[in-house]
């Protein structure tokens, strides 16, 4: 398992995203001191690649692990190159609520913002 420093974090997580994820983690009965949010990239979506998120009980070997506002975030080495420098936010508005990844590495995104191309 590798980790990043506060200066070189792979992904930045906003306070609102961390608060929402921690609420959801606690609601699942997971220990927020060990468990965390896994952010990953997979093939799919109309632009070729899509983001995925899930809760994991602990990081896996080779993961980049960072902590943001009390939330642990796990990124596997294959996804790291796609999401490095991204910001994870949680938006709650009239159009609905959800997590959103602002990715400076994406050359283009589909209209719904769920998939991207580098």
UniProtKB/TrEMBL annotation:
It holds the Pfam family Fe-S_biosyn. Residues 13-114 form the Core domain. SUPFAM superfamilies: HesB-like domain. It comes from the Archaea. Transmembrane segments: none annotated. It comes from Halomarina rubra. This is HesB/IscA family protein.
